[in-house]
Amino acid sequence: MVLPYGRQSINAEDIKVVEEVLRSDWLTTGPYVTRFEQEIAELAGSPNQAVSVTSGTAALHVAYAAAEVGPGDEVITTPLTFLATATTASMLGAKVVFADICEDTGNLDPRAAEAEITGATKVVAGVDYGGHPIDAEGLAAVAKKAGAYLLEDAAHSVGGSLDGTPVGSLADITTFSFFPTKNLTTGEGGAVVAKDADVVERARRFKGIGMVREPEQLRTTDEGAWWYEMPELGLNYRLNDLQAALGTSQLTRLAQFKARRQEITDRYNEGLAGIEQLRLPAHRDGAEPVWHLYPLRITDGRRRELFDHLRGQGIGVQVNYIPVYWQPYYADLGYKRGMCPTAEAYYEQEISLPMFPDLTDGDVDRVVELIRSFCGA
């Protein structure tokens, strides 16, 4: 039996609450969506209600649209991320500018980002790689200098914090993902939070097909109660009550998930300590991650061999991530390998070990023993 690298944790209460929705009058957007959005906003320390959407990718698309990103704008981001951090900005017509990462955390390096600022910079988008929060202070200073928004792609880190400030309050705009392998799940889903109420309103309109019904927003006011208008374009990215009910139930166990992920990280750290060719995940002072990944690095050039060895033993390891600008789409636009050498070196060494709350200590020990044996430790 293959040990997966990540999986959801579903209990009887999760199933019960979803079953209750199936027996109710609401399946699409309803009262559970409102409740879930309020609870996510509270978790994030946001002054405004969260905007729930259908996926983490949708959250990024909505966030960039709410930041009014478009043709002629530039978005500075990291290449060490899932495709959507970049592609959703490209879809809106922006130029994506890739800046290098911090060697220790894998997160966007503020100094590298600052070097890429131009008069067209609209958003600086950092990613909480593996669950470790971005250098919010450094990146905020860069964004402020550019007159740009700081966006935190927190797909890996819902429930985390930095210097006591929750993820969701560190940046101007924050996006979350609730994919099954993430820290909590709605099956598929995501959310956007923002400090500026106008940004939140634009996000809500964009994810709702651009439609408005509120009387104060209508241009025509003498029609009946059925009347709606579309002042701008949008898409249907609306979460439904089935998903929101699952998310609401999962939130009651987020602290438990967080603690277990830390226990697993600590056990990996202890078991893999002292092996010369291994680099363990960095953890900066003040950061309180929710570890979505355990990004191990092997520095002797044998990442492929270790990957194949573990897969051959039924261990579902993964690699996170191929530098985004290596993808054919961006290569065809003229992006070249070698642009971000630290990110490329990180990719060439990285291997993600199994990480999910239901992973047993015995599972962790088995993975550790296989790696130690491979390394001759």
From TrEMBL:
Gene: pseC
UniProt record similarity statement: Belongs to the DegT/DnrJ/EryC1 family.
Protein's UniProt name: UDP-4-amino-4, 6-dideoxy-N-acetyl-beta-L-altrosami ne transaminase
Claim: tRNA processing is one of the keywords in the record: no
Naturally occurring in which organism (per UniProt): Dermacoccus barathri
A Pfam family hit: DegT_DnrJ_EryC1
Signal peptide interval: none
Record keywords: Pyridoxal phosphate
Required co-factors: pyridoxal 5'-phosphate
InterPro entries for the chain: DegT/StrS_aminotransferase (IPR000653), PseC (IPR020026), PyrdxlP-dep_Trfase (IPR015424), PyrdxlP-dep_Trfase_major (IPR015421), PyrdxlP-dep_Trfase_small (IPR015422)
